[in-house]
Amino acid sequence: MNIDTLVRNNIKNMSSYSSARDDFKKLNDKKFIYLDANESPFENAINRYPDNKHTELTKVVSNIKNVNVNQIVFGNGTDEILDLIVRVFCNPNKDKIITLPPTYGMYDVIAKTNGVENIEIPLKSDFSIDKNEILKLSSSCIKILFLCSPNNPTGNSFDTNDLTDLIKGFNGVVVVDEAYIDFSSKQSLISLINDNNNLIITQTMSKAYGMAGIRLGMGFSNQKIINYLNKIKPPYNINVLTERKALEELNKIDEIKKNIDLVLNQRKLLLSCLEKLDFIEKIYKSDSNFLLVKVDNADLRYNQLLKNGIIVRDRSNQPLCQNCLRITIGTENENKSLIKILNQL
Ligand SMILES: *Cc1c(COP(=O)(O)O)cnc(C)c1O
């Protein structure tokens, strides 16, 4: 596939913002006097603009994820990267994306914000992908297919063959949102970016890595797509505090892995407790850090939990999710409180 033909002409023809620090490399053995960016000269650890190339972070993440440094883009949360992707490829009031509801709500918001039509191909009743229905659609205006695996709010991973068939068969860019991949029994598809020039993988520091507060999302793709995304990215989108904190936390990767195991154990435990409750009609198989459960009356159960100080997410208004609550796996104590209260209802 020729990726360039999918990119908007205005993006192809523009040049990116050249930052004050682009023209030279910082040399460790040389102390520069910075009079180039109208910053405050008074040192307080945050008076300088951040490194717009995110050099240190890129190095660390490329090691953890086993990709090249030129295969990474960072965003102010994954949400910013998803928005950049739509803006690189989709002409407003002309181009379209495909999403598979019930799924992450931001794809639709981002599409609508950018004047891009969102074609919805619902998942089948078992939350699997309706592959043939997607591949039937063919139009040069349909630029992007968003696949969320493991999917939010259903919690399941999609069949790997379905995903790879779509990456191969879809005539546009395929985004696989792997926000929950660290909780999954399935492997990340990140290594496929080397063989499929239309594939973008997104991941985030917000879930398994425990850093939702610093807003740091990651996109992985081939160098060509990454260059387009970087071209339109706000140069200083990752702030100094975020980069510093991320590096600090990523240094403790063993702790992160330990916490993932704790969540997975708690997921199993919570599942077995929920199975015993008669007002819970179904617990969907989860590959994520949450459980989607169908109850007798979602509104009633949501409000009962709320009165007892526990907030879950009512997903009833989503297709195929009538009377479904999405419950995030908490700490052992939090889950104990949840079970105690559920048993009293
Ligand atoms: C939570 C979540 C994200 C993460 O978004 P951030 O902006 O990185 O916090 C992305 N995709 C899905 C499906 C999510 O549930």
What does this structure look like?
The longest helix is centred in the C-terminal third of the chain and has 22 residues, at 253-274. Helix 2 packs parallel to helix 8 (240-250), helix 3 (78-89) packs across helix 4 and helix 9 runs parallel beside helix 11. The mean pLDDT is 96. The protein has two domains: 3-251, Type I PLP-dependent aspartate aminotransferase-like (Major domain) (Aspartate Aminotransferase, domain 2, 3-Layer(aba) Sandwich), CATH 3.40.640.10; 254-344, Aspartate Aminotransferase, domain 1. The chain has eleven helices and eleven strands. Strands 1-7-6-5-4-2-3 form a seven-stranded mixed sheet, with helices on both faces. The chain has a four-stranded antiparallel sheet with strand order 8-9-11-10, with helices on one face. It has 345 residues and is of the alpha/beta class. A hairpin with a 6-residue loop joins strand 8 and strand 9 (290-295). It binds pyridoxal-5'-phosphate. Residues 77-79, 104, 148, 152, 177, 179, 204, 206-207, 212, 217 line the site of pyridoxal-5'-phosphate (PLP).
How many individual domains? 2
Poorly predicted residue ranges: none
The H/E string reads: HHEHEHEHEHEEEHHHEEHEEH
What fraction of residues sit in β-strands?
A: 5-15%
Q: Which structural class best describes the helix and strand composition?
A: alpha/beta
| CATH architectural category of the largest domain | 3-Layer(aba) Sandwich
Give the radius of gyration. 22 Å
Question: Can you list the strand order of the major beta sheet?
Answer: 1-7-6-5-4-2-3
Output the CATH topology of the largest domain: Aspartate Aminotransferase, domain 2
Number of strands: 11
According to CATH, what is the class of the largest domain? Answer: Alpha Beta
* Shape field: globular
